[in-house]
Amino acid sequence: MSSPMTTSSDVAYRDVQYPRTPIVLGLLSIAGVAVAVGAVYGTVGTLLTAILGLALLGATAQRARLVVEVTGSAVRVGPAHIEWAWVRRVEVLEGAAMRAALTTDAHPLDHIDIRRSTAGLRLWLADPSDPHRCWVTSVADPAALRSTLRSLDLPGVDHDA
């Protein structure tokens, strides 16, 4: 399932998602710690604490991001990727369909990687060596993804998009 890295010109659809709640909680935590340190060490302590906290939060957010890329040859979800030859069916999920994919339709053998759950992409796999029956991931712009998948016109892939 490994393929060479794609260049940015090969990417037909790219979506980068950051987890919102941990970032907001991290900012509130940094503010609280900076105020507490400021009471003991003054303004310099407050500034150093805030700078260190923001750097740590930025590095954490960068590691926690989810990048979804669709090319003419493969789909990449974070560090995982699969070539279109091993995909049987593609579905763009919105609203109730996405909620069902994450609850009632979910299976222990699903590869689920989400940051937001309002819309998503489900890839049903035809790869006998892959332990997952399907991949489910969140996407920010389902209309753009649907249009990209239609424009790629992938042979052998059933499009329910």
What is the total tally of β strands?
Answer: 9
Percentage beta strand: 25-35%
How many domains, as an integer? 2
Specify the overall morphology: elongated
**Low-pLDDT windows of residues:** 1-6
End-to-end Cα distance: 24 Å
From the helix content, strand content and strand pairing, which structural class follows? alpha+beta
* Largest sheet: number of strands, sense, barrel closure: 5 strands, mixed
H/E series, N to C?
Answer: EHEEEEHEEEHE
Q: Would you write up a description of this structure?
A:
The protein is of the alpha+beta class. The protein has 2 domains: 11-16 and 66-159, no CATH class; 19-64. Helices cover 39% and strands 29% of the residues. It has a 5-stranded mixed beta sheet, with helices on both faces. It has a 4-stranded antiparallel beta sheet with strand order 1-2-3-4, with helices on one face. The protein starts with 10 loop residues before the first strand and ends with a strand.
Secondary structure blueprint with pairings:
Blueprint (H helix, E strand, L loop, with lengths): L10 E7 L2 H45 L1 E6 L2 E4 L2 E4 L3 E8 L1 H7 L7 E4 L5 E7 L8 E5 L3 H11 L5 E2 L2
Parallel strand pairs: 5-9, 6-8
Antiparallel strand pairs: 1-2, 2-3, 3-4, 5-7, 7-8
Question: Which characteristics define this entry?
Answer:
four-stranded antiparallel sheet, elongated, alpha+beta, 29% strand, five-stranded mixed sheet, 3 helices, 161 residues
